[in-house]
């Protein structure tokens, strides 16, 4: 009888262990920490939909609020967010946020990088240098002349250039809640690009009117990134959060 009881106990333990393993969030199979870095003209609130999906899938998600005054400041803020994580990190950047993660991503905790319609500069490059010579026929972002060292997009043209596939109400709010983007931040140059030592993923937004898709493809290829192309505006992280969350989770699991 004692042997049967022990056998039953062992079987029960195996069933319980199986149940626990099945219920474990898939995030635990790879990196479980995700740090999201926003770009210029916007703040971290735009990540809300992506955040909700990742949290539901079991990830620990942190959102960086960049001052977007200088690259050095934004890198420092991002590094503090990385330092707070309890294990490997997937570092994600949108637009100018790609410059930030390229500089901050050399941190030992960073396991992989994800660029969402983002700049992926090489050593010595900045946003200012990358946009200096746009390809022929590329749309010109409606950036207004600097005011006290800061840039804004023309509110009347914001939706068409930045958020063409976002609802009119949401795009209007984004236009009216713009964050001043410091000219010094645009001029900030990357010293040691993290993508040279860390695996990277790149989501190309094929209807982007801020960073031309050919430029996105060039930077992704140069970085040796795993590339996914999806129709969408520059604000694809707002308009198609499921697509964005999916590529982040692929990076967390190291799936090419």
TrEMBL record:
**Keywords from the named record:** Hydrolase, Signal
Residues of the AB hydrolase-1 domain: 34-246
Which spans are transmembrane here?
Answer: none
Record bears the keyword Signal = yes
Q: Which residues form the signal peptide?
A: 1-22
GO MF annotation terms: hydrolase activity
SUPFAM superfamilies to which the protein is assigned, alphabetical: alpha/beta-Hydrolases
Membrane is among the record's keywords: no
Note the PANTHER family from the entry. AB HYDROLASE-1 DOMAIN-CONTAINING PROTEIN-RELATED, ESTERASE_LIPASE_THIOESTERASE DOMAIN-CONTAINING PROTEIN
Could you identify this protein by its name? Alpha/beta hydrolase
Origin organism is Dokdonella soli
